[in-house]
Amino acid sequence: MGLVDVRVPLTYHIFRMFPSRSGVVLILAATLIPVGMLGMTVAMTGCATSDEAGKAVTYSLTAKQNYEKGLDELKDENYSEAQKYFQFVRSKFPFSKYAALAELAIADTNFAKASYTEAIDAYKQFIRLHPTHEKTVDGYAAFKIGECYFKDMPDDIWLLPPSYEKDQSAVSDALREIDDFVKKYPDSPYVKKAEPLRREALKRLVDHEVYVARFYLDRDHPKAAAMRIEGAIRRYPGSGREPELLLTLGQTYLHMNDPARARDTFERVVREFHDASQARASELYLDFIKQRFGDRLPAAGTGHG
Asked: Which of 3, 27, 52, 117 is the 20 to 30 Å CA partner of 236?
């Protein structure tokens, strides 16, 4: 709790609990506080707050003034103080247009201080309570939900396994939310901001699939590797990694003595990604398959090693 301008006609009921030496909890109630004494009383309680609660704040007369004070504190990264102002606006001016803006600002504050789970809940609540609000209709709140999931993805940290070796459920959640946002708000001005987030999430997921495929290849399990690569191509279209994945898949089919599927895969690289460097490599593999097997390719598993 912070300082309150004595001009503001507010009345509080303050309940504080203090443990006594005997272990009995005493409940002290102060009610019907005169408006003239309110600033001093609340100031005293503000001094007793912990470091996490931040510094005491001084509330103003109007919702607009308090909301703007909250924005200033948020800009200065004084998150605790910003939350106090926004909570004050929401509770004391519930019918003002600034009440909804304060709710959204609380979500933004949680996002700014990396409390992504709390921010997600706040954005979802905002959408649910204010379906016709400008910041719901233009997709802002939905975009921020996807961005929260994106920010919460595992990072690459020195001395720890790279992110593609870790569980990818958080990355899958991020991609799902971003895709859901784009689907629901295709004309949103935030779609462009979502695009690089989606590409990075796709890259992470594809990197993981490649990592697992290489794990199988290193242990001479090409069929399992092929299944992982096929799955990555099917589940993550638009990743930008298709030429690389298809080239590796074709090579894996050759290792499996399946030149027919290898040929089809290399032809797809040349046909769909002719400008990619993998297209030239695929052409060389196609020449090798033709020279080795001619026009009649053996059935899968019956070719030469």
From this structure: 117
